[in-house]
Design goal:
The chain is built from 14 helices and 17 strands. By secondary structure, the protein is an alpha/beta fold. The protein has two domains: 136 residues, Aspartate Aminotransferase, domain 1, CATH 3.90.1150; 255 residues, Aspartate Aminotransferase, domain 2, CATH 3.40.640.10. The mean pLDDT is 97. Bound molecules: 4'-deoxy-4'-aminopyridoxal-5'-phosphate.
């Protein structure tokens, strides 16, 4: 059984009041709270075990290196990559995507080539490609979405042709909650020899991701959105692709031999890890992945679906409330507006009631433009949230509406 009260006791941040009200944390899409096991791991490392990795021959350094490489194995297993060589530690989704837009872009994108993204991307999966398109005089094309916030598959078919160098797509939309049919899309792309990068920032925390089954070429995610520490992320890449790409940043750890005349680079995965890695965060993230596996990814997904259905039903019943994002397949995100009330006013009033929700464009401004709005209020719920908390949101919104009348 899924014991939410017990799970909540693992997250110290949930046990607090804001403005004299118990905190209801519905901003998990921006960042998740951390279980004690992750916090303790960081504290233990910095108190006792800290030492730089891949450098020393002394006890602490060797031990830390071992733990760091164990964390890589843990990530490999979590996403079912074929080899640890395919797991690059970065500082987050944004850095992972930029690694590919820079290196893949340098090597494979030339003038007149097309780069395909979707209409529901986070800025992190738009701007790096725009910068690349400008640098290489390439063309950025966008797959449209329908009013439910789903990719228009017929348009995708029209847009996909051999002149496209790469397709970069979010697995799950942070603004709308849509789970994209990425496996089907990857198949279509591969039929035309187009490699696919998936932005998995919002997908990884909510369910099972198997990169071999998906057959994606690259996959990016952040530790802080999956109950792990900040400043760590993952870039998965198929080994055959990563071998073909040049390094992104140069520095220590990513080299084999250096002279002023010539430098040879380290083997994968270190070729893409220049400078001192954030090894405490990588090890902390591995603990977070253990925590998720112990709860069970399927159980998490089933419980979060219950929360989504409950919240959708409850909030839709509020007069004048409009939900943006009604895809058939969604994660537990409800993005909404109350008629006649600005999203920031809604967010500020709810905040005083102890409810933490995100307001604004959610770093996905083109999504807002598509719906003709300036932003939404977003409740992003995870396994430590409860139906009682959704009731509080409902009551808060009813009160708010009365206030604004
Ligand atoms: N992509 C998506 C879909 C996201 O939700 C986010 C974070 N909001 C990012 C990319 C960027 O992640 P980070 O800031 O951790 O690099």
């Amino acid at each position: 059984m899924f014991d939410v009260q017990k799970i909540r006791s693992d997250f110290p941040a949930l046990d607090q009041q804001v403005y004299g009200k118990p905190l209801v944390y519905f901003d998990n899409g921006a960042t998740t709270l951390k279980p004690k096991v992750v916090i303790d791991t960081l504290q233990e490392i910095y108190s006792k075990r800290n030492s730089n990795v891949h450098r020393g021959i002394h006890y602490l350094s060797l031990r830390m290196t071992e733990e760091y490489e164990e964390a890589r194995k843990r990530v490999r297993k979590f996403i079912n990559a074929r080899s640890e060589k395919e797991i690059i530690f970065t500082n987050g989704t944004t850095a992972s995507i930029n690694t590919i837009s820079s290196t893949f872009g340098e090597e494979f994108v030339k003038e007149g080539d097309e780069i395909l993204i979707s209409a529901m991307e986070h800025h992190s999966n738009i701007v790096p490609w725009q910068i690349l398109a400008q640098r290489k005089a390439a063309i950025l094309k966008v797959i449209p979405m329908n009013d439910q916030g789903e990719i228009v598959m017929e348009k995708l078919d029209e847009l996909m042709h051999e002149g496209i160098r790469i397709l970069a797509l979010n697995h799950v939309s942070n603004a709308l909650g849509t789970i994209n049919p990425v496996k089907e899309i990857i198949q279509k792309a591969h039929e035309r020899n187009i490699p696919v990068l998936l932005d998995g920032a919002q997908a990884i925390p909510h369910g099972d991701v198997d990169v071999q089954d998906l057959d994606c070429d690259f996959y990016a995610f952040s530790g802080h959105k999956v109950y792990g520490p900040n400043g760590i992320g993952v870039l998965y890449g198929k080994e055959e692709w990563l071998e073909k790409l040049p390094p992104w940043q140069g520095g220590g750890d990513m080299v084999e031999k250096v002279s002023f005349e010539k430098t040879s680079f380290a083997e994968l995965p270190l070729k893409f890890e220049a400078g001192t890695a954030n090894y405490p965060a990588a090890i902390g993230m591995a603990k977070a992945l253990d925590y998720i596996d112990a709860l069970g990814k399927d159980q998490i997904a089933a419980y979060e679906k219950e929360l989504l259905d409950y919240a959708t039903l409850k909030l839709s019943a509020i007069d004048g409330l409009k939900i943006f994002g009604a895809a058939a397949n969604k994660i537990s995100i409800v993005s909404f507006l109350l008629e006649g009330i600005h999203q920031e006013d809604t967010g500020m009033v709810l905040d005083k009631m102890g409810l933490a929700l995100r307001t604004g464009t959610h770093c996905a401004e083109p999504v807002m433009t598509r719906f003709g709005i300036s932003g939404t209020v977003r409740a992003s719920m995870v396994f430590y949230n409860t139906k009682e908390e959704i009731d509080k949101l409902y009551e808060g919104l009813i009160k708010l509406r009365q206030m604004f009348r």
